[in-house]
């Protein structure tokens, strides 16, 4: 078409809307939508839902990956319906009718008369003033006359006529003469019957207009905005009945009927609001008026493809020959009227006002001018003519001319304070500026803002304000001004329409997320607001969708309260929409997370969840679903294999073994494993099997669970599950049971029995409450593989009053399950495992059920809890075989093997009653009366015993330093076995630890099955006791050399004095009245106690509190034993201080001696042990040179291998009754003149050695010290105590003196004797007189090993007096050490001689 300047303008995508004549408005003119209109828009949004599996955009913003729908078709459908249902307004002409279609059926007798009547009727409606609707664009409305012919009404006779195609020629010719060729048209439709169309697939011509997908055409973004709707009038006569309408494809409808012939099957009474005619076709649909029900599926079934072409041709003819020329004509006329008067004024506006000045309304007051209803222009007003021209130009895409007219009209309206008119002009001016080709001017967004504010605040017309906001938002989004668009949309939200507010808030949220820097949290917040408003508007599905999209932002970011609110809303909406699975999932998130909600709110969440969950489980009974509460700490699950610990029965105390009530201690577990390895090695002849696996009765997260644990058939398996309640309200669990799977091996019917502990377990979350646990038991009856899968239970909440009483009958209770999935330890061995995160298996819930095994139970009778240090006490142990399998190979290992003994099996041990009532005055020692006439303390008796007779065969003396059997004791059974159901009782002697305090002592009982070849090679039983040791006696011993040379034959090998210092260090609180030293015995391969040197009147040694006594004994060397006995025999010598001797070479005295904690070998320094051993080996081949041999020889001179055993009795008062306690203490003498003590000196800072930060170097091999070398030779002077000499007769007194030298070493020694003539100091001259030695004054000789040599000397005195003869100095060195200097030997005590003048 041509514009007013005669330039050809191309009109693109022209769209025509055809409606019937409706004389009442669909929307009130006040701008407030009615109920029907709101319901229509609500239904449009409700029926448009996101497609299942539709395309979604994945937007990455920072740490967020959001899955958002690519389009919002529900908003586009709402926008389309809203714009189509806009009411026609007086201040604008966009929705006014431009033309009228007058349609008459060819079946009318005189169609021309009908056309005339229709034309008159239209004229009356438009110009009579009786009807306010519909509104007409211009007074001279285009009338287009259509003669509609239904091809199905032709009769066979008519069809047979040769000139049937010419029957309409006279009629059409008459119409062309009357209305012109461009004003009328003959349309033929319904060329076939409906039955004939059953076999052919003819496309539905109206489907694309009836079922709209997305609104991409009404408001298109880009350089152009398509024409809104050009409203036409489609009219027909009222004489056509329903049958004819159905047969004629429904083109005509009743006059003034409110039902559009093409609308969808909706209850809305708004005509044409849903169905706009698109493209270049007329939108029609047959309304079956006879039935009142619209066709649901197919339309245009009687139309052929030729009919489709005829309809398209009809629309083209109407548009090109009628409508567009009519519009072009009116634009030209309006423009000519305005331009012709342009020269009369400087502005088009002034000229227009003068041209149309006759219709100006009188002036109004200021108050009335500011009100939009206070100023109304008449239809012929020049301002409205300018607006009308602008609207016409806008409809045919003449946007540049339209903008000029809108801009001119805007100024005029503003000058007249006609705010409603001005707002309309501002709105369309902004749209026209945006749609101009090439965008010569920027988009005036402030025009839109002013228009919206005027519509909303001044005119109070929310419909127009919403339309303006929708248009402006689309324009801003097309220009990527998302922030401005979001602000505009948020401003349009209000309380009067929840649906509009929800849609606008959702669009604002999408604006936030589509910005260059996406504002994720604002997107989520506004989606929540939109979901809330959708929910208030009844749009449940859209509300759920909004909450779900917002959940992507809040999930897992610490917004716990917001997350709870969203999940709760999602759960409720899902349940309302009959999506119970989604509801359960949402409620699960509320309950499993650590919520910050109050207890009341959490209780409401829990009750809501249980209600929803129960409805879900009631609907489908398939499998037990997973429950979210309470939280199960799977890694803390513990599995116990075996019967629970038995309590004490009367005087019997059962072994502690392993219990679920005990906490796991890694160091303690390593100690038990070490004990088990030792006892297994002792049982397997010193070799630990390669398949050895330590026994683990209780498995937890810290044990080794890589292997399948072994359980025994008919022995229970107890599973302890640890719960955690994340809520602040109590939970009630009932009917707990385990889920398991069993695979039978070698048997047919697996029947494990399942037991649940307790009826109900209330779980609270109070901080002071202990961790809630549940213990469930499985009892396998067959062998095979068992897999424990999970837990089944009933979950209920307490009443809202807070009463924790378990009563699930009143509240909602549901049954579900939770799986026990335990993650194994992380693997970190290979390079691949270190670079990746991989975990090993955890088999604690997958035990293997093995054949029956023996089951041992141990009971202790009269077992004390407190002992004195060194006290000997007798107790009894009862061993019971509780299984159906014979038991054998019973052994025991302990961390304190010196604490107990079962006695010697080789020596005759005095029998003890099996069930003694008390230990009062019942000695644990075997005694022997002293022979008549013998004096206590005289020559001691000697007994030879073997260490192997008292457990040395298992190496107890070694203390577990080397060898597999150190510290292992075989328990003697009757026949070596214990049959099923049998029990035996054995005596057990205990000795109190040497150190005071509380001692933790562990026993490990080992036993095997008499039936070999099972999966379990052995079993163990653990027992732990705590013994409180109180102080008793402190014994200190010292060995000194005897200066006298022995004359008796048995003392020729040497003798020494042993001093024993005994102190009572017991406190009076223990009730000990006094201690008696009953006997002192010794054990050594080299020395023995010979006799006791005590005053004759001291018959007994009694010590009360804090008293001390000292005993002196003479020790002599033992006679050399035969070579076969040297390694095994230990001579025991007893030197008693009372008349009743204790046989120390039998049980239990000898047992505890050999089991003492620190034997001589372990007390010596490591270097000394090594040196002694090497020297002993090299001694047989001669004295080789070297510092090692020198040190060994020299040290051997001072060594004493003598053990002292002190046996005592204590008199204790308990319950007004005196009780005698017995005990023994051990002292190990090692070196001459070095004190040894029975108690370890606490002053020795042993910990200081452990604080060295540098590695300690091995000590260098040092030469013997001067002190050690000074003890090689022992000297002794033999002389008369007094000597008489007549000095008057002879001035010189000659006295013979014998110097005896004794070699104390085992090597040859070179000796030099130097006889001094003068004293070394002047002090000696004053104290003692001066004398001189006569004869040879220096001797050099060599002494063999332990050789004794005598040298005759002569002393010369000049005066009478007291003299000291101890002046000779003796120097010695080893014979084979030539480079070594002689060392001065220690001299004896002063040798005083009295010289008497006989005159």
Number of strands: 54
Q: Report the radius of gyration as a whole number of Å.
A: 61 Å
Structural class: alpha+beta
Give the N-terminus to C-terminus distance in angstroms. 181 Å
* Largest sheet properties: 11 strands, antiparallel
Helix content: 25-40%
Proportion of residues in β-strands: 25-35%
Count of discrete alpha- or pi-helical segments spanning 4 or more residues: 31
Low-confidence region ranges? 156-165, 211-296, 343-373, 747-751, 755-760, 764-769, 801-810, 907-921, 952-964, 1122-1129, 1157-1185, 1243-1249
The overall average pLDDT, rounded, is 76
Outline type: elongated
How are the secondary structure elements laid out?
Layout: E1 16-20, H1 35-47, E2 56-61, E3 64-69, H2 73-84, E4 97-105, H3 111-127, E5 142-150, H4 156-160, H5 169-179, E6 184-189, H6 207-210, E7 230-235, H7 242-247, H8 305-340, H9 348-355, H10 366-370, H11 382-395, H12 399-415, H13 419-435, H14 445-458, H15 462-478, H16 482-491, H17 498-513, H18 520-536, H19 540-554, H20 560-576, H21 580-592, H22 599-619, E8 631-632, E9 638-641, E10 653-654, H23 666-683, E11 698-699, E12 710-712, E13 717-724, E14 731-744, E15 753-755, E16 760-763, E17 773-779, E18 784-797, E19 813-819, H24 831-835, E20 848-850, E21 856-861, E22 866-868, E23 871-881, E24 887-894, E25 900-901, E26 927-929, E27 941-946, E28 968-970, E29 977-978, E30 983-991, E31 997-1009, E32 1019-1030, E33 1033-1041, E34 1055-1064, E35 1072-1083, E36 1087-1092, E37 1102-1103, E38 1108-1117, E39 1129-1136, E40 1140-1142, H25 1149-1154, H26 1160-1163, H27 1166-1178, H28 1187-1198, E41 1199-1214, E42 1217-1231, E43 1236-1237, H29 1247-1250, H30 1266-1269, E44 1273-1278, E45 1282-1285, E46 1293-1303, E47 1309-1314, H31 1322-1327, E48 1332-1334, E49 1338-1343, ...
Parallel strand pairs: 1-7, 4-5, 4-7, 5-6, 12-20, 22-32, 45-54
Antiparallel strand pairs: 2-3, 8-13, 9-11, 9-13, 10-21, 13-17, 14-16, 14-18, 15-17, 18-19, 18-20, 21-23, 23-30, 23-42, 24-28, 24-29, 24-31, 25-30, 26-40, 27-39, 31-32, 33-34, 33-43, 34-38, 35-37, 35-39, 35-41, 36-38, 41-42, 44-46, 46-50, 47-49, 47-52, 48-50, 51-54, 52-53
